[in-house]
Amino acid sequence: MAAGEFYTYNLWELRQGYQGRELEDLSRMGIIPQYARIEGVKEVKLFRIDEGDDAGKMLAVTVYESRDAYNRWFTSNSREFQMWQANLSSIMERWQVVADRTSTYRATLVLDHSYAPKGEEPPPPSNPNRPSLIF
To answer: What is the model's pLDDT at position 124?
Structure first.
């Protein structure tokens, strides 16, 4: 991860009778290939929440290089964007049969730190020009 990355988070509540495998399949076969077409998308993740008040819900996370990369794509209104949106809409229609979106968040990464196993040196910061924080 690099400081400045932009994340979208969507929390989905599974409808009665669904386990989440359907969303996993839709992600692998539809969402990931569609988002792979977007310049600036670094990762697509799907989490099953196992603990707390939201246990049993799914969290979909998309990581972009920056807020600018996100904005460039979603405000482009290009022919490519329109085709992408049309392809994605059929996938999302099936997704919404399985789950309801309960919340959406957008965030820019401001701190990035990795821990090394004991006895190993931690990796260098992803942005050496950014000051290190000590806790």
So the answer is: 64
Query: Which of residues 35 and 117 earns the better pLDDT score?
Result: 35
Q: What is the pLDDT of residues 102-120, one digit of tens each?
A: 999 999 998 887 787 877 7
Q: Which of 98, 96, 93, 133 is nearest to 112 (CA)?
A: 133
Any residues with CB less than 8 A from the CB of 116 and at least 6 apart, and which? Answer: 122, 123
DSSP three-state, residue 86: helix
Q: What are the structure tokens assigned to 105, written together?
A: 């968040």
Predicted pLDDT of residue 22 = 95
Q: Which long-range contacts (CB under 8 A, 24 or more apart) does 19-22 make?
A: 20/48, 20/58, 20/98, 22/94, 22/98
